[in-house]
Design a protein that fits this description.
The protein is mainly β and 537 residues long. The chain contains two helices and 39 strands.
Length: 537
């Protein structure tokens, strides 16, 4: 019997030991693994100029969009940040236009929070759309009492329905409290953040009456008007906010006075562009909007005559902070009213609605929704009372209806990046209509959470077979992992299992080659100082 101790200083799990004298393996010899000791290392992937491109297509007519990943080495320590970077870069390419409106990407390792994704552990590139939400737009079909699916949170505020004005359905909102200088006394907020792809938050002015109380004009100092804001906190959970929480905002204080903007808690007056005197129930009034497009936020006021005033472009979404839409009423319910509230919210946080022709279809997905009834499910039928001349035509829950007839593409800039993320090939397609889910082909992990390792001989043929390759492989031993969270393996065979060597004649070697593989027979990154011991008899 011969004992061969193989040592490796490499980091790829390979052994190549050259002895000073011949090792003769006789015919009908048998070989076994006695022990092994090694430490596996997290997978690392280097992003450089040869592999940092990812392209994607949302519609054939709009063509390919492209992102460039920053150069870095990706490992377990910065993995979450890596996926957040991909997500942000892809969302920053979404232009607020046409079929991209309301669209948002999310890239991460799949889990239950990914809608319609059943594969655990694979990387998912998910694209979903949430179209305009126009302020509690469905009524309960059973009793017609305006029982709402609430995406909005009301504090001293309410909605007023007026379906008879000018043959259009106007929905107005105002406070129910007194006029105030406090920002958090009368408001309406979204329970979920604004879409971080191509999204918008806007409303039209309906009534703006100056109460002539003599207070100084200003967002913090006046008790008149109304403001459109994005906050860095969720007022539905914590209503104690002030101007420091306002990331972006537009304030219409008094008709005839300048509009004011708020950026990161700092208020600015815009002389020369004043608030138009609004006419109640008139769709020609000023429309205030915060729009997200191509990674930037645009503050603007639009008018019926085509005049649009932009208050600047802001790139503030750099730390993945969720921004919550809020309407702040400074004036009381008589002096300050808005109408036709519109917003697109994060589609991964809600059950969302899509327009198909003139009917509404509820896109039903599993996930982090807030719209379940007492039984935990969505009601199946609602009465549509939002568009003119539709009466009480019912809409039916249909999770398989899609609005767009298009294909999506995801193209990796290199095979290496594709394989690292667990995909097969560099061009991936999805045909799910308005939403796309690109799923990895195999589970991804920088930490090798394995059930076992495999020792393979590279220049000694043995009687060993593997079903993954449907044939013979020189697999010497399968090594169980006692603790999948422990990267260090110290294995000692309790029972030696000898396998037949395939040689009809004596075989003379000085160099013995072997390697350690994972349970998918893929290479394993190891630290230096790995050892395996082989017995031959």
């Amino acid at each position: 019997m011969k004992l061969l101790r193989l040592h490796s200083n490499t980091t790829d799990g390979n052994f190549s030991t050259t002895f000073r004298e011949d090792i003769v393996i006789q015919p009908k010899a048998e070989i076994a693994l006695s022990n092994c000791s090694f430490t596996s290392e997290d997978q690392k992937f280097t992003i450089n100029s040869t592999n940092n491109i990812i392209q994607f297509q949302l519609t054939a007519t709009e063509g390919l969009l492209q992102i460039e990943l920053p150069f870095q080495t990706v490992d377990n320590d910065n993995l979450e940040e890596f996926f957040q970077t991909i997500t942000k870069l892809m969302n920053d390419e979404l232009l607020f236009s046409g079929k991209r409106i309301g669209g948002q990407f999310r890239v991460a390792i799949g889990d239950k929070d990914f809608n319609r994704v059943e594969d655990e552990g694979v990387v998912n590139f998910v694209y979903q759309r949430a179209l305009f939400y126009d302020g509690l737009n469905f009524d309960d079909a059973d009793n017609g009492t305006n029982k709402s699916i609430e995406i909005l949170h009301f504090v001293n505020a309410l909605k007023i329905d007026d379906p008879n004005f000018d043959n259009n359905y106007i929905r107005r909102f105002n406070s129910t409290g007194n006029d105030t200088i406090n920002l958090n006394q009368n408001f309406i907020s979204s329970r979920v953040p604004l879409c971080s792809g191509a999204g918008t938050f806007r409303f039209g002015l309906d009534t703006l009456i100056y109460n002539n109380d003599g207070l100084n004009e200003g967002f913090e100092t006046d008790n008149n008007g109304v403001a459109l804001c994005l906050l860095n906190k969720n007022p539905a959970q914590d209503p104690n906010f002030d101007i420091s929480n306002v990331v972006l905002g537009i304030y219409a204080g008094r008709a005839g006075s300048p509009y004011r903007t708020i950026v990161n808690g700092v208020e600015t007056s815009h002389a020369g562009f004043n608030v138009n005197i609004p006419i109640p129930n008139n769709t020609d009034n000023d429309v205030l909007e915060i729009r997200r497009s191509e990674g930037k936020y645009f503050l603007k006021v639009s008018r019926k005559n085509g005049a649009t005033h932009n208050f600047g472009t802001h790139t503030i979404f750099t730390d993945n902070t969720e921004l919550y839409p809020v309407v702040i009423f400074k004036g009381d319910g008589t002096n300050a009213k808005i109408m036709n509230l519109r917003l697109t919210v994060d589609p991964y946080r809600i059950k969302f609605y899509e327009i198909r022709d003139i009917n509404y279809v509820i896109q039903g997905y599993q996930g982090n929704d807030i719209f379940r009834n007492e039984e935990g499910d969505l009601p199946e039928t609602y009465t549509l009372n939002q568009l003119p001349n539709t009466g009480t035509n019912p809409i039916t829950y249909n999770p398989n209806t899609f609005r767009l007839n298009t294909s999506f593409k995801l193209i990796f800039g290199s095979v290496g990046l594709s394989e690292y993320l667990g995909f097969e090939g560099i061009r991936i397609f999805d045909f799910n209509g308005s939403c796309a889910i690109f799923k990895g082909f195999e589970p991804f992990s920088t930490i090798r959470l394995l059930n076992n390792y495999v020792v393979e001989l590279l220049n000694i043929e043995i009687e060993s077979f593997d079903s993954l390759h449907e044939g013979r492989r020189n697999l010497l031993k399968v090594i169980p992992v006692p603790n999948v969270n422990n990267s260090t393996v110290n294995y000692e065979a309790s029972n030696l299992v000898f396998l037949n060597v395939r040689n009809a004649f004596p075989k003379t070697l000085r160099n013995i080659k072997a390697r350690i593989l994972d349970d998918n027979l893929q290479p394993v990154n190891t630290t230096e100082n790995s050892v395996i011991t082989i017995l031959i008899k």
